[in-house]
Amino acid sequence: MTLSASQCVRLERNGELALVVAHNPPVNTITAEVRAGLREVLDAIRSARDIRAIILMCEGSTFFSGADIGEFSGPPREVEYRTLFNAMEALEVPVIAAMHGTVMGGGLEIALASHYRIAAPTTRFALPEVTLGIIPGAGGTQRLPRLIGAERALDFIMSAKPVGAPQAMELGFLDQTIEGDLKTGACDYARSLLSAGKGPRRTGEMRVDPATASDEMFQRLSDQARKLYPNRSAGLVAVEAVRKAAHSSLSEGLEYETALVNERKTSVESRGAIHVFFAERESRRVPGLGDDIRAAPIKSAAVIGAGTMGGGIAICFANAGIPVTLLDANAAALERGLANVTRTYQSMVERGRLTAAEAGQREKLIRTTLDYGDLGDADVIIEAVFESMDLKREVFTKLDAVARRGAVLATNTSTLDIETIANATSRPADVIGMHFFSPANVMPLLEVVRTTHTSPVAIKTVMELAKPLRKTPVLAKVCYGFVGNRMMEGYAREAQRIVLEGATPRQVDSALEDWGMAMGILAVFDMAGIDVGVNVHRANASQYPPDPAYYQADVALHDAGRLGQKNGKGYYRYEAGKRARLDDPEAIEILRRKSRELNVPARAHSTEEIQERCLFPLMNEGFRILGEGIVMRAADIDVVWTSGYGFPRYRGGPMFHAEVIGLDTLLKGMRRYRDIFGPMHWEPAPLLVELVEKKMTIAEWES
Ligand code: NAI
Fold this sequence. Notes:
The chain is α/β, with parallel strands linked by helices.
């Protein structure tokens, strides 16, 4: 029987039990409306005399998945959350949170304010706030340590990673798992509590076990926070919040937590991470593609070329449950490709990501063929053969002959002109770039590249296909290098120039990694293969500035037979089978010889200079790309770099970061280095100059 109803929270009765059931699709975010519904239902519960226990649960795919991140930029809501959760905790009858799905942040915090916690066996739990630069702000830092001890609570908050139900029971914040129907199980559980005479068990009335909260532990976890989250302070602030829990009443602790979280929200680290969070959602939206443009359904796919990229792309489709045909030029290549696919699935099984049965099912979705005639059914065909214009045009001519009308014909090219590829077909409107990143089945970024002919339907189809493929799509127009690689040119050019000027590879990579890049660029070249970069630069020489030192560190190493990790020597030396970078005097000597040959003046480099010289050209190129209308919005550039190039999310991406340091600082920096190194590489982007002159922010310019 339904007693009281708001839009998204209702109260059901089952005898002496009251069930508070939320329904706020898709993931039961705790929006203002949900909070209002919960308040209304709590009032109804308080005035009903015959309720003996309360079950809090959600309909749909998950229990409350978290707070409404959209509210972060508005006025603080913590007090509202606190009042609501405290009111729930204060109820005179037992409150049981019955959970399923993915219970994150505020979703877990409401469960911590309940008196008992049960869950379906597949439920996952996380407090991911520190990765957003904040701390759990709805009681998480105060209630969790009361339940499971300070050390375990901090470990959990700091790791920010989800744990499964068995682990949650082991940690001690979950009382029981419920097999079968959750509602029935929850009612049985509630009745068993009542028959055992159990009443409310308020987390807030517990004390943090002092044995888990020593000064030594807090010191150790502070050190861990510095190591895990360099350049950031949310981890350290979480330590402070939990320390408070160990020494204060709940109400004092909650107030302290609120003050900390509100201070955190104004930090660059939090604003940057939240900017990226929303930028990733927004990047899928293409203004101008109205609702009348419908994406074509994708029921089957094909991939041409079973190499590094083709195999990974096929796995993406199989993971999405879309049957895919993999075609290569000969049987040996197909066999190699399929063996790589099998190895990838095996390793996913070994790492516990998939069961063997699931892996088997997915592998079965990948068919192989040597015959273009087998591609007639595919709704989308992605070409990933060698990077050669003649070869790609030949492949697209064949595809034109066999593909069904309306199929999307995509190329994974990194450097070739997609307009020219499209013109090899009689249907350029159906041709588009789908630029995946290696390993294609892992990296989330997908650059979607439209030509002047690509149809709105093809664009919409690919932007929507990104979702089942679990990719973050960014739409761009054709230009050399598209967004990511084009911005990488200047970044990597300077890194190479700096080693020619006398810095060691380690000095350069450490400066970049200390700043926050996931991996120094020279180490990236070693990993990707120095020959790969050299071949690209040789094949496209006409695209680059006439600078005799351009990418010559790569060339020097390459010509000395140093190809990177694959043969154990590149910018660094590697021991067989290991990835640890070892300094190598031989590499340094080769670089010195090259700089003498090219007459590159030696220079002493501060860490700051290395960071500026690599990052300023990167950001400057972002302003060119934006100014030329290659991307739809600046935030798309931030998505490219944070999801495809290891740019730290907590710095918000290159365009966000440019505004953090100040556009005038970037402009002055470009001019300062132009005075030293000349205008060839250091001319500020016209848009950057314009924004500084007009004292405009990027957002103002965009609107
Ligand atoms: P790869 O050399 O690993 O694989 C190329 C595959 O294409 C081989 O299996 C080859 O047998 C096959 N092939 C050659 N001619 C063919 C034909 N006529 N018909 C059918 N199959 C044919 O190359 P990789 O690295 O997978 O690159 C493929 C494409 O993806 C290139 O355009 C490359 O620029 C692009 N790309 C590569 C990335 C990388 O990191 N490797 C990243 C993003 C794009």
